[in-house]
Amino acid sequence: MLMAGTSLEILSINVWHVLMAIGNLLILVLILKKFLFKPVQNILKQREEEVGKIYSDADEALSKANEDKALYEQKLMDAKSEADSLIKLASEQAKRESGDIVSAARKEAERRLKNADDDIELAKKKAAEDMMDSISDMVIDLAEKVVEKEIDKDSHSALIDDAINRLGDSL
Q: For a tag on the chain, would you pick the N or C end, based on fewer CB atoms within 10 A?
């Protein structure tokens, strides 16, 4: 029967062993908590803070980039409107200057035309005076010849023809 008694001891539970195992387990858990879980949790917390900081920095950078983009677009629109106004101003100034140039050219052409008309009129007057002088010289010459000679009808006609020929040659 001894066998039956030894098998019972094998199967029997020793309370002190169980309590010692539980105590060892608690001590092990406390040691692991103190030296392993807390540092690991601190590291995880630091990583979480770093990731949060990275996300907040990325959000700040994104908002700054959006602000810079809006500012750039505003400056681009301002520059475009300024360029448009400069082009419009230059175009208006060019139109005014071309109008002034055309007006000055017309005035110059009118002045030159008036001067040419005046020169033509003066030349006509001079030509008329020259012709009058020539005619008066011929008449004087003719009168002198008439006074010197007694004129009959044939010589009178010859004298007039001669005067007309000389008048035609001088013109």
A: N
